[in-house]
Design brief:
This protein is 42% helix and 15% strand. By secondary structure, the chain is an alpha/beta fold. It folds into two domains: 182 residues, 3-Layer(aba) Sandwich (Rossmann fold), CATH 3.40.50; 153 residues, Glycogen Phosphorylase B (Rossmann fold, 3-Layer(aba) Sandwich), CATH 3.40.50.2000. The strands form three sheets. The chain has a six-stranded parallel sheet, with helices on both faces. Strands 11-9-7-12-13-14 form a six-stranded parallel sheet, sandwiched between helices. Strands 8-10 form a two-stranded parallel ribbon. α2 packs across α14 and α4 crosses α5.
């Protein structure tokens, strides 16, 4: 059995590996997974785009993805197991492989199964018959896939949120000054306007790394109309971001109403053993709050956020105990090693079951 990982976005994995070796950034989990599977990695490149690719992109994805899917589909056989890391490649591959008798086992990550175009494309061409396993990152996405397409439990796998425990670790507070420091990060579905409203009159310093590798002109974010004097928003390199987490009295994740955003920062903050305050959205965020691993506040509730900040800053022993619980929970359930191992086992078992 040969394994293949197909990405719809190009990643310089050699750069990630070198950066991690130099302790300048986290490891890339896909590269870890590929090494463990001994898989071939296929990424966008110089694939010839045809008229057919352009026409099919009217239905879904892009001409570039269809050209890549067409080239790959012709080379795969029943001796292969393919993991597509997004719908942008997974669904075009499924469409083309449906016509192939000697087809591989196909696994695809599905970020938003309820998106109208995604749902319609899967249903119109009966792609659930070709996709052997769907992976998702949230319980509600798993429920949506089962509800929309009648999938049994064994056809959907929810992988864990994760951070690289070898890079994001507790350490010295090099940035802490005379007043409490609050850290925040991320750009997708962020509500920095509510954060600014909550802290504008507080004697604290707030530093925000407003960046996301997946951000686009469609990214939803609320920025403050007027930036408070005690709040700084800029880009931080990974080593700077780690120092920020380590130095922060609190990590605050202020989100719009969402069921998926903020999880990476949540994991990174837990990995650095810092107390977390997070918008109490449905999914992992509310689960962490319910477990006593983070303190929650409602979306858009600046007063509730201010009260949460006051509570933890006024009770440092409570904050420290919560951070310690979250750190232990992270190491047990959400490390990158745990993530890679669980996905590796699922991909391998899917290939073996289907072969048998």
């Amino acid at each position: 059995m040969a394994y293949h990982i197909v990405t719809g976005t190009f990643f310089d994995f050699n750069m990630f590996a070198q950066r991690a070796e130099d302790d300048r950034g986290p490891r890339h989990s896909l590269y870890q997974l590929a090494e463990k599977l001994q898989a071939n990695i296929h990424q966008p490149g110089d694939y010839t785009i045809t008229l057919g690719d352009k026409l099919l992109s009217k239905l879904y994805s892009t001409p570039e993805h269809w050209a890549m899917a067409r080239s790959l589909a012709s080379s795969f056989s029943s001796e292969d197991t393919v993991y597509a890391t997004g719908e942008d490649m997974g669904l075009p591959l499924a469409f083309l492989l449906k016509l192939k008798r000697d087809r591989p086992k196909l696994i695809t990550y599905c970020m938003v199964p309820e998106r109208p175009r995604t749902k319609a494309f899967i249903k119109l061409f009966s792609l659930v018959k070709v996709i052997d396993l769907f992976t998702v990152h949230e319980p509600n996405k798993e429920a949506a896939l089962k509800r929309l397409f009648g999938l049994p439990d064994e056809r959907v796998f929810q992988f864990i949120s994760q951070a690289d425990e070898k890079f994001f670790t507790p350490g010295l507070a090099t940035l802490r000054g005379d007043i409490p420091l609050l850290a925040s990060a991320g750009l997708e579905q962020r509500d920095y306007a509510t954060l600014a409203q909550a802290v504008v009159k507080m004697p604290i310093e707030v530093k925000v790394c407003a960046f996301s590798p997946n951000a686009s002109n469609r990214t939803k974010v609320r920025m403050p109309e007027t930036m408070p004097k005690n709040m700084e928003i800029r880009y931080f390199e990974f080593s700077e971001l780690r120092d920020l987490y380590r130095s922060a009295d609190l990590v605050v994740i202020s989100l719009l109403k969402s069921n998926y955003a903020g999880l990476t920062v949540l994991m990174e903050g837990m990995a650095c053993r810092r107390p977390i305050i997070i918008t109490n959205n449905e999914g992992l965020a509310s689960d962490m709050v319910a477990k006593g691993l983070a303190l929650g506040f409602e979306p858009g509730d600046a007063q509730g956020l201010q009260s949460a900040i006051d509570q933890l800053l006024s009770n440092p022993e409570e904050a420290k105990a919560m951070a310690e619980r979250a750190y232990c929970y992270f190491l047990q359930h959400h490390s990158s090693e745990r993530y890679v191992d669980s996905l590796f086992e699922k991909i391998q078992s899917t290939g073996r079951i289907l072969v048998d």
